[in-house]
Amino acid sequence: MAARAATGAAGARALVRRLKQTPPPPGPFRPGFWRSPIRGPWLTSVFGLVLLIGIPLLFVTGMLSYAAYNPGLDRINDQTPDKGLLGFYLFDWPTHPYWLYRLTQGVHVTLGVVLVPVLLAKLWSVIPKLFEWLPVRTVAHGLERLSLLMLVGGVIFEFVTGILNIQLYYVFPGSFYTLHFYGAWVFIAAFVVHVCLRLGRMSRALRSRGLAAELRTDLAHTRPEPPDPDGLVPQAPAPPTMTRRGALTMVGGGSLLLLVVTAGQSIGGWARNTALLAPHNRAPGSGPNGFQINKTAAAVGVNPAHLGPSWRLELRGSRPPLVFTREQLLAMPQHAAALPIACVEGWSTPDQHWSGLRLTDLAALAGLPDAGSVLVESVQPPGPYASVVLRGNQIHDPRSLLALHVNGADLSIDHGYPARIIVPANPGVNNTKWVHRLTFRT
Prior knowledge:
Layout: H1 2-21, H2 41-68, H3 100-114, H4 116-130, H5 139-166, H6 176-208, H7 211-216, H8 244-260, H9 264-267, E1 313-316, E2 322-324, H10 326-330, E3 335-339, E4 352-358, H11 359-365, E5 373-378, E6 387-391, H12 392-396, E7 401-406, E8 409-410, E9 420-422, E10 435-441
Helix pairs in contact: 2-3, 2-4, 2-6, 3-8, 4-8, 5-6
Domain Oxidoreductase molybdopterin-binding: 310-441
Region (Disordered): 220-239
Transmembrane segments: 42-69, 107-127, 148-170, 182-200
């Protein structure tokens, strides 16, 4: 048996030697195909350093966005079943400060868009590595290549799905939340492995050239870097047509432009007028209900027949169910709160002035003044976010309302008439519209 194993190992080594002697196929697999004289470890490491700072922040804010949906509270809230250990960090999402979700999700989406030019530049700088010949030389080399495949595939998948979702053109099969969540964990695992393998080389490459000196180097004095063991520097470089300064300026300028045309959807105020790439930032209309919405009543299958005179609000708790007409709800003491709506796509409204009934008062009416959660059900047909469960801290925040009015007027149908939920720091889709039943639970 030992002899057969030794024979097999020798045969494998012989096969590898023969493959190494085989010339690479034509095109990008041949070293002479890549000729840019500015490609090399230093430029790659500059882009890598930006991503080394930006990617962890992007990942953390994405995980916070997931926690904000309170997926551990109830399966109704859980858009990523069987997450297992990946949900180890989940915590009770707070209601203070009221703009928390607006901040974390705004940073997540804006940073993701801003990093696109840097990501593309980084992929351009290392593209010869993707066409390396032989594709696999040793077991260690194969593991490194596998981590690279997971890294590149994961980052492309995460950025593409995220950008399509925020532009309302999500076309992938399955739930965006599920795919984006698991994709993020696959990508970040590959990212950590890649950083551990390359951090030393990146540090040496960054020390090999000064940033200030490169920014002063003109086209006439642009030279290729010395040959490197990773094969990023071309063997036969072409004459330069751009300086490294120019490459950094182009990428930085692209990121700055994307920041200007995206960030205003979260910042608000005068900056909102610059958010040209934000689909929800377009003129939302006039009147007291003239602020952004995600989906109209018609889009989710809600029609006026569901919301006419026969509509009732049902309260359930420790007492027999209570049923109220809208007029009876309006006759109760009304409370007000100034809160925005912030959505997973990164957009948010300015603070809107809501009025209605406090959830904590409704819990007391239902016989559970110390309710630990509430199941909120909408009249919309069954589907994602037709129902949601809110935590006890969300119920008992005095700004958490079953809203009946906004900005001094009745809710419009598209904004949730006859009644909707509004809770501080709550993702927009969890502020359920067209509410018809609240079930308070211990």
